[in-house]
Amino acid sequence: MSTLEHPAGPAAAAVSAEDLLEMYRRMVTIRLFEQSASRLYAQSEVPGFLHLSIGQEATAVGACWNLRRSDGITSTHRGHGHCLAKGLDLTSMFAELMGREGGTCQGRGGSMHIADPGLGIFGANGIVGAGLPIVTGAATAAKLRGDGGVAVGFFGDGAVAQGMFHESVNLAAVWDLPVVFFCENNHYSEFSREQDQHRAGLAARAAGYGIRYEAVDGNDVVAVAELMGGLVEGLRRGEGPVLVEADTYRWHGHYEGDPLRYRTSDELDEAKLRDPLLIARARLAELGTPPGTLDDVDASVAADVEAAIEAARRSPLPDPATIFDHVWVEEEDPVEPEPEQGERFRMMDAVREALTLEMERDERVYAAGIDVGEGGNVFALFRGMTEQFPGRMLDTPISESAIVGSAVGAAMAGMRPVVEIMYMDFIGVCLDALMNQAAKLRFMTGGRAALPLVVRTQFGAGRSSGSQHSQSLEAMLAHIPGLTVVMPSGPVEAYGLLRAAIQSPNPVVFVENRLQYGLKDARPQADYIIPLGRARIVRPGRDITVVTYSRMLQEVVAAAEEVAGDGIDVEVVDLRTISPLDRDTILTSLKKTRRLMVAHEGVQDFGVGAEIAALAANEGFWHLDAPVVRIAPPAMPVPYSPSLEKAWLPDRVVVADALRRLAEVGPR
């Protein structure tokens, strides 16, 4: 009977001999896959790192036994067994380990990153604990769809020390999600013993989160399958999350090549007495299965594994010409419409109206974040939307890693989440979810993973918010390949760009300036949308090009109007999208004006202006009649005192003075 089609069955029905024989076959498959992977690694046919789960076969098979194809799992860096138990084929997995084009992820992921969202496998993960926020997203998608789906997040005892574990379990409890957090407790965190890493057990932790806890012998596949059968059925009926602790043991080291100085051979010999395969064979014998039948299974699986290895070896290495494939999805480049001039509205109205329209037109869109629901967001942008969209404006705990990580999982599961990080400064708290998950998973899965998600946040210096609530961190985010970074400069741009961001197939960080929420402009037509990655000429000119974005645009335009009285004609370019950068518009403008200035609110060193200056030097050098000028705050934390903050943050006076100086440099 196939894993992909296995029915859930009664909650705790006795496992038949036929079922147990199939479980045994799957465990043998995992065992021989891992042993073969070890051999191939020693022969240098598997590059990179290799982490094996020999000894833990029963947890993978038992936990996945009652899952449907559409149910989601997340895995660990030791995840081959989970992927095989959920239905992945041997050949593509071996090819992936070898870095071949025929690999599950076209050789882009390797041992630690195998995934196939089409089978509900949302990824093994090289970051300890990182799969747990993602699995809450898969469970969120299942709950929003109301299709009875469940999710299982595998993790090791070492991940319990991660903040992502706490945030994920707590979020799942608060949202009452259909998820099992499944701990494969093999008693070692890398080289450290479990008792040296924790002072509280998982039973106590589960009680602290207010969720159910179950313990099971992780080497007994029948015990695991029967327990999980009941739990999965309960989750399908609407029962809340569960924390399962399966006691097991890994026979090999943390990684292949681990010298294993931290445990004794006697300890390993004792653990092998509880070999999951031996336990299953003994039980099958009790049920009357002839030993010859089991030997035939062993031989059949061995032949399948060897055939898969040979097939994987025949797969070619990826063509270097495909190196940029799957970094992100190339979007259509439609003609940008002219906005109609309606009644005036504020930028805060633009954000709300764009989200409202997208939620009306696409039921996959939902919003989540700290106080975005009942509170309507800290700036009251979304007040009343919980009544308009019941169950789709979700309040979260103060858990940035869980907020963004769950968005990753929900996007992979087919939703289009729009999640909020209250202040841009807090991006650092959830940087793994952005940098290692949202930005990389499409590439590392060879394009199998879809990541249509938006992370909204805001920033803005000038109101004495201090160093931890004022930072403009777009340069850091733009340096992460795979992320789209958008910074609107006013209400019309906020409306059109946010709609485009929500519709985008790529992960987008959408950054608003809170000092502009009251800024007014004429409301565009409802279907107005601005293509991402395209700058605009705000003010045509012939003498100097100034590239800017976000709130600094108003300061630059004011300065340009001032110096026009001195006969200096300034062309102003609003980037709108920081990454991908609209290089063509910048270079075309530079070719006309032959002088370039960049102005932004992020600190100058290593900022967006530095990238644009490099672009001008590399590709626009022969158009330059003067050095590129950067207007930006000095590289230091944002001051609190108004007098210091005013001295730190450039304004229209600083810009105008710099324009006058630049106009005097070089030929006229």
Describe this structure in words.
The protein is of the alpha/beta class and 668 residues long. The chain has 3 domains: 17-315, Rossmann fold, CATH 3.40.50.970; 344-522, Thiamin diphosphate (ThDP)-binding fold, Pyr/PP domains (Rossmann fold); 536-663, Rossmann fold (3-Layer(aba) Sandwich), CATH 3.40.50. Helices cover 39% and strands 13% of the residues. Strands 10-9-11-12-14-13-19 form a 7-stranded mixed β-sheet, sandwiched between helices. The longest helix has 26 residues, at 17-42. It is an enzyme of class 2 (transferase). Its cofactor is thiamine diphosphate. Keywords: Oxidoreductase, Thiamine pyrophosphate, Tricarboxylic acid cycle.
Portion of residues in beta strands equals: 5-15%
Alpha-beta classification: alpha/beta
Which regions have little confidence, pLDDT < 50, spanning 5+ residues? 1-12
Biggest pleated sheet: 7 strands, mixed
Return Rg in Å.
28 Å
Shape: elongated
Q: How many strand elements?
A: 21
Instruction: Tell me the domain tally.
Output: 3
CATH topology of the largest domain: Rossmann fold
Strand and helix layout:
Blueprint: H1 17-42, H2 57-64, E1 72-74, H3 80-86, H4 90-97, H5 131-145, E2 151-156, H6 163-175, E3 179-185, E4 188-189, E5 192-193, H7 202-209, E6 212-217, H8 221-236, E7 242-247, H9 265-272, H10 276-286, H11 291-314, E8 344-346, H12 347-361, E9 365-369, H13 385-388, E10 393-395, H14 400-412, E11 416-420, H15 431-438, H16 441-444, E12 454-459, H17 474-478, E13 484-486, H18 491-503, E14 508-513, E15 520-522, E16 536-539, E17 544-548, H19 552-564, E18 570-574, E19 577-579, H20 583-593, E20 596-599, H21 608-619, E21 629-631, H22 642-648, H23 652-663
Parallel strand pairs: 1-2, 2-3, 3-7, 6-7, 9-10, 9-11, 11-12, 12-14, 13-14, 17-18, 17-20, 20-21
Antiparallel strand pairs: 4-5, 8-15, 13-19, 16-18
Helix pairs in contact: 1-2, 1-3, 1-10, 1-11, 2-3, 2-8, 4-11, 5-6, 5-14, 6-14, 12-18, 14-15, 19-23, 20-21
Pfam families: E1_dh, Transket_pyr, Transketolase_C
Cofactor: thiamine diphosphate
Protein name: dihydrolipoyllysine-residue succinyltransferase
